[in-house]
C-alpha cells in the first residue's frame, strides 16, 4: 500500500507540530510565554486548516488522522503543560507549599495526561464527528496559553493554588462525558447553525470589550454553554 506522507494537509499538520515544539523550547529555555502564546495560536490555525484542506482537496486519510493527533499532543498538550508549569514555578509561595518548584507543581502534568486520553478517545469514537465528548484539546491549549500571555504582560497574577486547580480542571474537562458543540458549520444558513453563529457573535463582543482577557472568557463561555446544552439534552431525553 502506497502512503502519501507529504500532502498539503499533512504539511499543515506538521506545521502545527513545529509550532508546538518551538513554543515548548521557548518556554523551557527562556520562559518566553509571550512568544509561546502566538506560536500556539498559529498552531491552532494550522490545526483548523489541515482538516479543512483535507476535505476540500479530498485528501483525508488514516495517516492524516493519526498525524493530527500526534501534532496536537505537542501543541495542545506538551506546550500548554509547559506554560502552566512555568506559571506554577513563578507563583508566590503558598501557605501549604513554600516551595512552588516542589513536587506539588507536577500536578499540572495531568494536563498532558488528559490531552493524551482525549486524543486517543477521539480517534476511535465515531460519535464525535459533529460534536465533541469532552473539551477539545486545542481549546484547552489556547486557554492555558492565554493565561501565560496575561501573566507575561503583567495583566494577571494567579496564586499557586489557582494554577494547579486550573490545570487539573482543564484535564478533567477533556476526558469528561460532557457533550460540547463543534464549530463545524453545516452550510451558511441559520438553520442548524444558530448556536454557532450566536457563539461567534458573543466571541466578537468579548474580544472588542475585554481585549487580551477575551480568550479565557471565551473558554469559560464555551464550557458553560456546552454544559447547559448537554444538561438540557439529557433532560429532554429523560422526558421522552
TrEMBL record:
Listed InterPro entries: CDP-alcohol_PTase-I (IPR050324), CDP-OH_P_trans (IPR000462), CDP-OH_PTrfase_TM_dom (IPR043130), CDP_ALCOHOL_P_TRANSF_CS (IPR048254)
Bilayer disposition of the protein: Multi-pass membrane protein
A cellular component term, taken from the record's GO annotations: membrane
Subcellular location: Membrane
GO molecular function: phosphotransferase activity, for other substituted phosphate groups
Pfam families to which the protein is assigned, alphabetical: CDP-OH_P_transf
GO BP, sorted A to Z: phospholipid biosynthetic process
Key word Lipid metabolism present: yes
Chain ranges passing through the membrane: 12-29, 35-57, 69-91, 103-120, 158-176, 197-225
Family: Belongs to the CDP-alcohol phosphatidyltransferase class-I family.
Protein name: CDP-diacylglycerol--serine O-phosphatidyltransferase
Provenance organism: Alistipes communis
